[in-house]
Design a protein that fits this description.
Elements lengths: L4 H13 L2 H8 L3 H15 L4 E3 L4 E3 L1 H26 L6 E7 L1 H18 L3 E7 L13 E5 L8 E15 H6 L7 H5 L2 E5 L7 E3 L5 E3 L1 E6 L2 H9 L4 E5 H10 L2 E4 L6 E9 L7 H13 L7
Parallel strand pairs: 3-4, 3-5, 7-10, 7-11
Antiparallel strand pairs: 1-2, 5-13, 6-11, 6-12, 6-13, 8-9
């Protein structure tokens, strides 16, 4: 026999609440029922899931792996119940979304504003981090990645491409006597770099040439780079979606525009098999629209 879903959900509740007593109170059952459910699963699996002491519960190595999968099942169970009860395909519930800091304000901010207005029954749990979170272990519904994803088991959807280009304020360009004549010259200007450009940022030419950049300011986040560039501190290598409005209004000037310096794909990852929930489908659609990527591509 295999453990039933009820016992697996009970197992999740025990770890979330921290004790059999607290889990029983949370679930509205007896402490003995909780204990019996855990023991029943351990017997069926022929392994110990928990170390029990009078003060605390800790997971065994096997228990920790099993718990990760049980949490994913619990999330899908709640999603299934919510959507079946609604019956109208409306987006609702909580959407856990993770994305790197480079995409936080430039790409996500306008998308999230529209998404929340169009889907008032969805609550967002937003995790902006350069750490690649484990979707199952962290119960993430949707992960946004820059560059080809490495996760083998996830469902991958391309959202579009990110094109980097060099930009500076009109004030800074005038201070330097006009636009640079070459990428080598551009490398000698003051640069505002972000940490995702690495320890030794270089000016990249479309033909693949690299020239060490004169970095004057280094920032953790893309938004900080953009703010310093706007204020005339130097040149920034910035993605097109982050500077679209600044270029249109003349707040920033593009430099050496023969072509995009770097082109990287932006992808969405999730673990829903055949029928992703409406809350997730609508987020993906809005992200593709923001990146001007055709829905059928």
């Amino acid at each position: 026999m295999k453990p039933n879903i009820a016992d697996m959900l009970l197992f999740v509740a025990v770890m979330e609440q921290g004790s059999f007593t607290a889990a029983a109170a949370h679930l509205g059952c007896t402490k003995s029922a909780v204990s019996q459910g855990i023991s029943r699963m351990e017997e069926m699996l022929q392994t110990r899931l928990l170390h029990r002491t009078t003060r605390r519960l800790t997971l065994t190595d096997t228990g920790a792996r099993f718990h990760d999968h049980c949490r994913a099942i619990a999330r899908l169970y709640e999603q299934a119940v919510t959507e079946a009860a609604a019956g109208d395909g409306k987006a609702r519930g909580q959407l856990v979304l993770t994305a790197p800091t480079a995409l936080g304000s430039g790409l996500l901010a306008p998308v999230l504003d529209r998404y929340l207005q169009e889907n008032p029954d969805v609550r967002l749990d937003l995790r902006i981090s350069d750490e690649r979170l484990d979707l199952i272990a962290e119960q993430v519904d949707l992960a946004i990645r820059v560059g080809e994803p490495t996760e083998q088991s996830a469902r991958i959807v391309k959202l579009g491409d990110m094109h980097d280009q060099y930009c500076a304020s009109e004030t800074y360009v005038n201070r330097k006597g006009g636009s640079p004549g070459s990428y080598r010259e551009l490398a000698q200007w003051d640069h505002v770099a972000s940490r995702w450009q690495g320890n030794n940022p270089a000016v990249l030419a479309p033909d693949g040439s690299r020239f060490p950049a004169q970095v004057r300011i280094r920032c953790d986040h893309l938004q900080d780079v953009l703010d310093f560039v706007r204020r005339g501190f130097g040149v920034g290598r910035l993605p097109d979606f982050a500077v679209r409005d600044d270029l249109a209004t003349g707040r920033l000037r593009p430099l050496l525009v023969e072509g995009p310096v770097v082109r990287q794909g932006i992808y969405a990852l999730h673990h829903y098999e055949r029928h992703p929930p409406a809350k997730l489908r609508r987020m993906i659609a809005l992200l593709r629209e923001e990146l001007d990527f055709p829905a059928g591509a």
